[in-house]
Design a protein that fits this description.
Helix content is 60%, strand content 5%. A hairpin with a 5-residue loop joins β2 and β3 (49-51). The longest helix is centred in the C-terminal third of the chain and has 41 residues, at 89-129. It has helices at 3-9, 13-20, 24-32, 53-67, 72-83, 89-129; strands at 11-12, 42-43, 49-51. The protein is built from 6 helices and 3 strands, in the order αβααββααα. By secondary structure, the protein is mainly α.
């Protein structure tokens, strides 16, 4: 393949930072921690990092895993498995399914939190709309149910 064409298909670290939303520092961190699919990012004649489209796609997966709370060590293990090729799909699936369940649990907990926050915001709006701002915290009651079906109170 023509080297000029190949270099045009590759992206600089700045271009990848812009496209991925990661800082240049974060990209270097991901590389250093072994989170990328390539064990060594290619470099141009001047020693500058060059990334491929597949690197950008993989970074998107990594950032979504990280944003959802997956530990760096687990992302690293997942990347190692992908790099090693076919034959370990069950282990990859196990990592993803375990994390999927953790995210589902987090979402349920956050949904419960949102219910309480929404209730409290509605209580304040109702009191202010009735011109009762002097209503004290102690006199307000929470009538929604928690996840166990028990009434919550303040």
């Amino acid at each position: 393949m023509n080297t000029n064409i190949q270099q045009k298909e590759q992206l600089s670290i700045g271009e990848v930072a812009e496209r991925s939303g990661l800082s240049v520092h974060s990209l270097r961190f991901y590389e250093r921690e072994g989170l990328l699919l390539s064990t060594r990012i290619t470099r141009d004649g001047g020693g500058r990092r060059r990334y491929s489209e597949s690197d950008v796609e993989w970074l998107y997966i990594c950032t979504r895993l990280r944003a959802s709370g997956m530990p760096i060590a687990q992302i690293r293990r997942f990347a190692e498995l992908v790099r090693s090729g076919p034959g370990n799909e069950y282990e990859r699936l196990a990592i993803l399914k375990e994390h999927q369940q953790q995210v589902i649990n987090q979402m349920e907990e956050l949904n419960d939190c949102l219910k309480v926050i929404t209730f409290k915001a509605n209580v304040y709006e109702q009191h202010l709309n009735r011109n009762e701002p002097e209503q004290t915290w102690e006199n307000q009651r929470f009538s929604a149910l928690n996840t166990d079906g028990e009434k919550l109170s303040e």
